[in-house]
Specification:
The chain is mainly alpha-helical and 75 residues long. It has two helices and two strands; from the N terminus they run ββαα. β1 and β2 form a beta hairpin.
Length: 75
């Protein structure tokens, strides 16, 4: 029991395939769901306000926000 056991893990080993660094299939599915939800919110805003600028900004913010929140680069 006095021996030190060491475990060597090779660099670059990833638990799942990634589409790009820090973003795999699981994150892609979650980002699609988030983008669709925000697209629905943007469509509702457009129905009530008929403001194209606000609708486009909301839709793009939803896509951008979904991808950025799920990207694992910062971990």
């Amino acid at each position: 029991m006095d021996e030190d056991l060491k475990l060597y893990i090779p660099l670059g080993v990833k638990p799942e395939a990634e589409l790009f660094t820090g973003f795999g299939k699981k994150q892609l599915f979650q980002a699609l769901i988030g983008s669709l939800v925000m697209g629905g919110v943007a469509a509702l805003v457009w129905l009530f306000t008929a403001n194209v600028t606000t609708t486009v900004v909301l839709a793009l913010a939803g896509i951008f926000g979904s991808v950025m929140m799920l990207s694992l680069i910062h971990i």
